[in-house]
Prior knowledge:
Layout: E1 2-3, E2 6-7, H1 10-16, H2 20-23, E3 29-32, E4 36-40, E5 49-54, H3 68-71, H4 76-105, E6 111-115, E7 126-130, H5 141-147, E8 155-156, H6 157-162, H7 168-175, H8 179-182, H9 203-233
Antiparallel strand pairs: 1-2, 3-4, 4-5, 5-7, 6-7, 6-8
Amino acid sequence: MTTSGFNLAIFRDYAMKxxxxxxxxxxxxxxxxxxxxxxFDAFPKSIFHLLVLPRIKPPLSARHLNDLRSLFQCxxxxxxxxxxxxxxxxxxxxxxxxxxxMKRYKFKWEIWMGFHPISSMxxxxxxxxxxxxxxxxxxxxxxxxxxxxxxGFFLHLKDVLSWFDADPSYYRRMAKVNPRQYEPLLKDDxxxxxxxxxxxxxxxxxxxHLQDEFDKLTNREKAKLERKKKRTDAPNGTSTKRNE
Length: 244
């Protein structure tokens, strides 16, 4: 149940609490509803990283909600309803992240929502994280590969939801969430930047490159704000450009 002293079932413990507001500190719990909890990831892999957990309520048990694979062993409509509920809560979490982005950085950037098909943690959880992958906790190759948006291990929520409208044979194949299909992806050695697809080859080089890419984005957005401010501050709204 533990690895290096960390409780692998801690998400399940959270999901079973009848009154999370009184039993979980604000350093863990961001918000909750009758159906879900939104918590801060204790080991964030991006500047902003939240987790949305379904609370354990009938007709679903802890066994059904162990991970994505166990959820898809339920009836199709039951699994779809649960995922739509998570989607609704994730969009609320996204809005909260965007508000914090504006407070801290004065601009918003992309936010990803998705699952890991193989998880070391017990109990289903949906990742909601900012698209930067800049974090001191991003230490290992498997960390980066598990969140790379195009590698295939990170299953975007919108793609998972699309399985329900796909051909039945495709749904059955994807709903198996076969670990053998996904495990090799964690071992990818190229360590390619998710923005520019440049292969960096080592985690220190990759982390430095990702930070540089984010710094460039920040500088571009800052320059946009400064140009907008100059236009706004110009007398009578006239252009500040010199007449040619």
